[in-house]
């Protein structure tokens, strides 16, 4: 059990106090954007008008743009642009290209986008390098058309994501690729409607999303019919406290997981990004203690786990260092192996022996501590 050589810097202290799982003393975090804008095209959509009504009912002013182009986001410096963009919500119509769904193995058969962007400040954010331009959060007003268009994809899927463990779930649609649903749903209601849409759908389908927020009040009593799997993105306390700004706390996420599981939702853990910090076994062991306590005695628990190690690309590193110039997050090419993907892309991942050690540990620990949990993939 040797310490791994690729540790992130910084001292961390393990906390083993399970009282963290008492009902959170603070309500789950809710984002209040500083500026909300809506385009004319979005106002032509019924759901666009619903979002405006909802936002105004929360006492937030909505600026009606004259054209369908978003302006006024760039500041004098990159920092200012980042800060302005991250505090702006734009209600827009989705780009036409988004209506043709893309495969998204291994997490699901198809990717469906109800929004793009996220108000949180994770210093490893996987959106960096994937999305271009200032990181404004855009929510889509043409939700009804987006959901109606999914019918064409039922019964289709990417073979790699249709493992035996998941075939009972039917065609799966991932709705959190470029956003965090529970960071935004109180402003849009989009994911609530999606849950109801899937719940009423007479076909073998599943909606899936992952979140770092715990704001689930509005979901508990929805007629979900077991067709939405909500996964909570979790990490050990040193990672979550140090590098996940603006998100709900770990205990809020786990309390939310318990509430949804108790309401009959299939649930999941997205343990990501896994990092071999100093003392990682102890820290991730503590995380699994908290998960065990969170799911204890939940009847008919349907729990999955997706295990994703930290990685970065040249472009994500550049963007992240622009956003978080003083970050202590390790993004050192010399400590990583290069993994080449399709289309000539390359990612910096942990070396093979580190990956092997992490993987063995997680799979063993999950099998021992949470035998009912199905591990869907490791990457
Ligand atoms: Fe990025 Fe997800 Fe964090 Fe949002 S919650 S900043 S999408 S990693």
TrEMBL record:
Pfam families according to UniProt: SPL
Domain of life of the source: Bacteria
InterPro entries: rSAM (IPR007197), rSAM_sf (IPR058240), SPL (IPR049539)
Gene3D superfamilies: 3.40.50.12110, 3.80.30.30
UniProt xrefs under PANTHER family: SPORE PHOTOPRODUCT LYASE, SPORE PHOTOPRODUCT LYASE-RELATED
Protein name: Radical SAM protein
Species of provenance: Nocardioides renjunii
């Amino acid at each position: 059990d040797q310490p791994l050589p690729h540790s992130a810097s910084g001292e961390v202290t393990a906390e083993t106090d399970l009282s963290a799982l008492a009902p959170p003393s603070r309500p789950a975090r809710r984002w209040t954007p500083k500026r909300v804008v809506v385009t004319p095209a979005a106002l032509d959509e019924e759901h666009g008008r619903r979002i405006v009504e909802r936002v105004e009912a929360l006492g937030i002013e909505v600026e009606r743009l004259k054209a369908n182009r978003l302006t006024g986001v760039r500041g004098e410096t990159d920092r200012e642009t980042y800060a302005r963009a991250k505090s702006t919500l734009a209600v827009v119509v989705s780009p036409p290209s988004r209506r043709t769904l893309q495969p998204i193995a291994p997490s699901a058969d198809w990717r469906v986008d109800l929004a793009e962007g996220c108000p949180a400040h994770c210093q490893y954010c996987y959106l960096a390098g994937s999305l271009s331009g200032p990181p404004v959060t855009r929510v889509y007003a043409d939700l009804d058309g987006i959901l109606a268009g999914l019918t064409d994809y039922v019964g289709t899927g990417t073979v790699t994501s249709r493992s035996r463990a998941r075939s009972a779930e039917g065609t799966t649609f991932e709705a959190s690729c470029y956003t965090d649903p529970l960071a935004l749903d109180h402003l849009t209601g989009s994911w609530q409607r999606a849950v109801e849409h899937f719940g009423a759908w007479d076909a073998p389908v599943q909606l899936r999303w992952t979140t770092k927020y715990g704001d689930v009040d509005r979901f508990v009593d929805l007629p979900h019919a077991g067709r939405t799997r909500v996964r909570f993105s979790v990490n050990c306390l040193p990672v979550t406290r140090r590098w996940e700004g603006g998100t709900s706390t770990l205990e809020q996420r786990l309390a939310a997981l318990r509430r949804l599981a108790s309401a009959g939702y299939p649930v999941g853990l997205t343990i990501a990004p896994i990092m071999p910090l100093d003392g990682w076994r102890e820290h991730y062991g503590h995380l699994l203690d908290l998960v065990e306590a969170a799911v204890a005695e939940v009847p008919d628990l349907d729990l999955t786990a997706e295990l994703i190690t930290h990685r970065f690309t040249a472009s994500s590193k550049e963007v992240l260092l622009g956003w978080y110039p003083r970050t202590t997050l390790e993004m050192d090419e010399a400590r990583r192996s290069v993994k080449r993907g399709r289309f000539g892309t390359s990612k910096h991942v942990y070396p093979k022996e580190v990956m092997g050690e992490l993987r063995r540990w997680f799979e063993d620990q999950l099998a021992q501590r949470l035998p009912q949990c199905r591990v869907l993939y490791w990457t």
